[in-house]
Amino acid sequence: MNKQLIASAALVAALSTLAVAPVSAAGKEKCYGIAGIGQNDCGNLAGTHSCAGQSTVDKDPGEWKLVETGTCDDLGGMLKAEAKAAYEATQGGQADG
Fold this sequence. Notes:
By secondary structure, the chain is α+β, with helices and mostly antiparallel strands. It is built from 2 helices and 2 strands. It has helices spanning 3-25, 80-91, and strands at residues 28-32, 64-68. The protein is globular, with a radius of gyration of 18 Å.
């Protein structure tokens, strides 16, 4: 294979990944209070970390997982506004996120 063909294939692969990524989040919502230890999807309301897999408490109201839209309540979780209120009540302060 020549270098131009390899470069073109790599570019097509990279662009197709970018085009698919936003679609995979469609129909999803952040559900707070359902993540187990190390099972959160990204940063928390407190702002103490910004990465997935860093939750240290089961079902912390400040941690979230991405779930199918409309299923959060069925899973026993909360949407962001409710989670912020619950988190602030347990922390006695303001949430960052």
